[in-house]
Amino acid sequence: EGVRYPCDQCDYFATQPGSLKIHKERKHEGVRHPCSLCDLKATSASYLKMHMESIHQGVRYPCDKCDYKATTTGHLKRHKKSKHEEVSARGYRVSGLVKKMNVKICQDQSFQ
Known about the structure:
This protein is an alpha+beta fold.
């Protein structure tokens, strides 16, 4: 199963010492990373960085298939997966164009 590091203040277990340290800082010690431009108090430095870029600096990640612009790379990935990819019956990802072609082929053939 691997080594588990228990929190001495709750039922949380971490798989790495660093994760336990971060857990304690966020959940029990109230460590926050304040935004210098608004009232946000982020629970992590990485979230504060993402907040600064998307909210205060206007950083956007454009989709290469449409006009959508995401505020984070995670949102762009979710957008592309939901809007531009489909999963076939066999579990393969296919593009929207291939999906449309497959629908046309299926409509032209009788599978009754």
